[in-house]
Here is the input.
Amino acid sequence: MKFILANALSFACLAAMVVVGIIMYPGLPETIPTQYNFEGVAGNYAPKLLVILIMPISYAVSIGVINLMIRFSPENFAMTNSLRAMDIVVF
Here is the structure.
């Protein structure tokens, strides 16, 4: 429960990403350009499901990894002078 409360704002942002993806999904083309060259011509394409899911998945993984790093660090990163800065970086 402490993990969920400590990351409530991060989970709210994650939920917002998922909701926006669900809302946008029906209006997207089947393949979406993911890379452009210097002339502005699309070079690589990805399926729309991958494009919609990649950001929320990577954000969820980063929330988990950062919290594991904090949990298993010496003294749980107990840096009283840098606590505000660390909270901003974690968010």
Summary: The chain is about 60% helix and 15% strand. The mean pLDDT is 84.
